[in-house]
Amino acid sequence: MINVIEFFRNLPKKKCSHCGHDMLEKADCYGNLCDECDHPAR
Ligand SMILES: [Zn+2]
């Protein structure tokens, strides 16, 4: 059985492809943009 916390700790940190800020974990369907760059009003 996989330990979920260990699984996430082993993942590389995602960075926004636009501004380079570290991203919180999101579903892959959001792409590689952070909340700021992915904001619909921008
Ligand atoms: Zn960004």
UniProtKB/TrEMBL annotation:
Name of one Pfam family that matches: YhfH
Domain of life: Bacteria
Cross-referenced InterPro entries: YhfH-like
Name of the protein in question: YhfH family protein
Taxonomic source organism: Virgibacillus profundi
